[in-house]
Design goal:
Shape: elongated
Largest sheet: 4 strands, antiparallel
Mean pLDDT: 82
Radius of gyration: 18 Å
Helix content: 25-40%
Strand content: 25-35%
Order of helices and strands: HHEEEE
Number of strands: 4
Structural class: alpha+beta
Distance between the termini: 52 Å
Length: 93
Amino acid sequence: MLPEHVSMLRKYANEEYYEESEPIIDEQQFEDVNNLIAESMEFTFPLVIQYYKNKHMNSITGFIHFVDEINRHLRILDLMGTYINCPLLRFNT
């Protein structure tokens, strides 16, 4: 293999395991997200939800089915018809 290929393969392998820092939102952004979730549940329109889990940002497109405040999860019905639990947001106080 050429040295350029080896370096590109190493770079590709490192990108796969790239760790992201957890996003911090303020109280105003938290209220905006809560309002958007409530509107989505009331009028049943799909949302694209990005959430932080295992040091990576993940994305889901689907309908908000239930908000579990005790376990701090959203239950989302994705476009394929499966339910996914997504962690709720935290904000900096």
